Automatic annotation (TrEMBL), chain B:
Residue ranges crossing the lipid bilayer per the database entry: 92-110, 122-142, 163-185, 191-210, 217-237, 249-266
Name assigned to this protein: Zf-HC2 domain-containing protein
Keyword line: Membrane, Transcription, Transcription regulation, Transmembrane, Transmembrane helix
Transcription listed as a keyword: yes
Species this chain originates from: Microtetraspora glauca
Length: 322, 276
């Protein structure tokens, strides 16, 4: 998906999540470095290379990790306060990057277990809610199947289903489309865009296609800080005048790849005989991360941001995913 | 269909005023007669609720055996379901506890045959039994021991509520198993039960330390300290049972509630999103 070079400026948002000066260290590695950002209702995409601090940010927001410093306000609640934290958890849905499961549980039992942890104590209401989220994620037919027998995509849908329990106001999804086939991804997009109509959804992903298709806003993280906040169109617009199509590969070093029609798409300086092309979210993202200066590829990035360049910077997230 | 349900019968059926034989007869007819089915009044809400009850009966999972036992002793349904969802390592722990206790009982009998001092023969059992619930706590809750931890950590039950519920379950199991093994031991019954107060104090100590360190680290520290205390008896007072003496028991009796109070005061620190 491409955007016109003169994209609209970010629409004003009523922030439901505000972060000021957030810091987190693992030993000597600074993973979040005074991060400040805000976003509101709708779907907000979170992009960034591995090690940029995305997962750590999401864990701080999901209250599974305490930051070392800074302020977080989500849905008007302060997660540094025990009462605010518990109240936030009551209104929160969270899909971690690598969710674990009890393999001997059935799909129904696993979701019911999380429903109990979400204080759905009445059995009948709880079962109704479990059936609802299983329907939402097309898992009804697998309700009695043991988790150990599920494929990767099915497990991902299971993880997504538990995050929908209790109809949360804030939904935090860490790479939710990993392992989904194209049809499932389309259904996921439909579901998330519907959820985003009335909720705040933060979607961390490497798929710039998902961001372009789903998100009203996008945040790009680099080295533990926000390198860009705005609309996908705004991110694409940052690449205006730096995206070229040519019949031959550029002589100078730069990021380029051969497209399906046999032409070369180059980011950065204009190659000989290059003609301007409409910039896309991915172009803006790659240029923002400085990939246009050195990396090169014979294959198109294929919408998988952060995978195409090899010079992604940033501190390690302590081995727990960034 | 040559006949139809009389109007008053339909009304009595709709208001639940028929006996079960009449209900069966009416429903047998309704199954085959669309005209009479259309004549039965119903409310959408009632129909939806009825379907939901049927759906719930048909596809709800059968409670796990542990949950059924807990329900029978009065544990609320959702708590029983939560506790029955014991991670696989805990099942391993249960098997290990049984094995360790069996071994300790056998060792006590073996030692009692070789020495006239049966009290000394009890030392291995007394030293190991208090650590069994503590070891269970190490496997009960935490980022590295529970595969579902990250999902749990973002729920309102995260932190002290989940940890204490599981710790209570672990303690109850360990105390029940150790209690069952106690009458099988040689030696005076009072001494054979001298593991109980240390078990309570060490369990409370493990939870109190977990407000600062990860549960496995807390348990490892306590286990080393406990074995050190047992081994120190002969060195300090030439008494191999010093750690189980009446004076020591009084100390455990005071320490356990004090540690419980400390856990309560620092419970926010058991929260994954709270301060450490």
């Amino acid at each position: 998906m491409t955007f016109p070079a003169t994209a609209p400026s970010p629409a004003p948002v009523t922030a439901t999540v505000t972060i000021r000066g957030l810091t987190k260290r693992y030993g000597r590695a600074v993973v979040l470095d005074g991060l400040s950002l805000e976003f509101g209702r709708g779907v907000t995409g979170l992009l960034g290379p591995n090690g940029a601090g995305k997962t750590t940010l999401l864990r701080c927001l999901a209250t599974t990790l305490a930051p070392d410093g800074g302020e977080v306000r989500a849905l008007g609640l302060d997660p540094s306060d025990p009462g605010g934290r518990t109240d936030l958890r009551r209104r929160l849905g969270y899909l971690p990057q690598s969710p674990g499961f009890y393999p001997h549980f059935t799909v129904f039992e696993l979701v019911e277990y999380v429903a109990i942890l979400k204080e759905l104590t009445d059995r009948r209401k709880r079962h109704r809610e479990v059936r609802r989220v299983l329907r939402e994620t097309d898992l009804t037919d697998l309700a009695a199947t043991k988790v150990r027998k599920l494929s990767g995509g099915m497990r991902q849908r299971l993880a997504l289903s538990q995050s929908l329990l209790g109809d949360p106001d804030l939904l935090i999804l860490d790479e939710p489309t990993v392992g989904l086939d194209p049809e499932q991804r389309m259904r996921f997009r439909a579901l998330v865009s519907r959820l985003g109509e009335s909720r705040t959804v933060l979607l961390s992903t490497h798929q710039t296609e998902d961001v372009a298709a789903l998100c009203e806003r996008v945040i790009v993280m680099r080295d533990g800080a926000a390198a860009f906040q705005g609309t996908p169109g705004g991110l694409a617009a940052t690449a205006a005048g730096q995206v070229w199509l040519s019949d031959h590969p550029p002589a100078e070093k730069g990021l380029f790849w051969r497209t399906a029609d046999g032409r070369y798409r180059t980011l950065g300086a204009r190659p000989p005989s290059g003609v301007p092309a409409d910039p896309g979210v991915e172009d803006g993202y790659l240029l923002l991360l400085g990939e246009g200066a050195g990396g090169q590829s014979d294959e198109p990035p294929g919408g998988s941001a952060g995978e195409s360049g090899s010079r992604s910077a940033g501190a390690s997230d302590g081995g727990e995913g960034a | 269909m040559t006949w139809h349900l009389p109007g008053d019968l339909v009304e009595r059926y709709a208001h639940g005023r028929l006996d079960s034989a009449q209900v069966m007869s009416v429903e047998s007819h309704l199954a085959r007669c669309p005209l009479c089915r259309a004549a039965v009044p119903y409310e959408d809400g009632w129909l939806a609720a009825s379907w939901e009850r049927i759906e719930d009966l048909v596809d709800r999972p059968r409670p796990r055996p542990v949950a059924r036992v807990l329900r029978r002793v009065g544990v609320p349904e959702h708590v029983a379901t939560f506790l029955a969802a014991t991670p696989a390592p805990a099942r391993g722990w249960l098997v290990a506890v049984t094995g360790v206790l069996a071994f300790a009982v056998a060792a006590a009998h073996f030692a009692a045959r070789r020495t006239p001092d049966t009290a000394n023969a009890l030392i291995p059992f007394l030293a190991v039994a208090p650590l069994l619930p503590v070891a269970g706590i190490a496997m009960a809750y935490g980022r590295h021991v529970d595969p579902v931890y990250e999902l749990q950590a973002a729920t309102p039950m995260a932190g002290w509520r989940a940890l204490l519920l599981r710790a209570l379950a672990v303690l109850s199991c360990a105390v029940a198993l150790s209690g069952a093994a106690t009458p099988l031991l040689p030696g005076p019954p009072g001494l054979a039960a001298a593991w109980l107060l240390p078990a309570l104090a060490l369990t409370a100590g493990a939870l109190a330390l977990s407000t600062r360190f990860a549960p496995p680290v807390s348990v490892a520290v306590l286990a080393i300290a406990w074995f050190g205390a047992v081994a120190a008896g002969p060195l300090l007072a030439d008494d191999r049972l010093l750690a189980f003496s009446p004076g020591a028991q009084a100390l455990y009796g005071v320490a356990a509630p004090a540690l419980v109070f400390l856990i309560y005061a620092r419970r926010a620190r058991l929260d994954p999103g709270g301060p450490r």
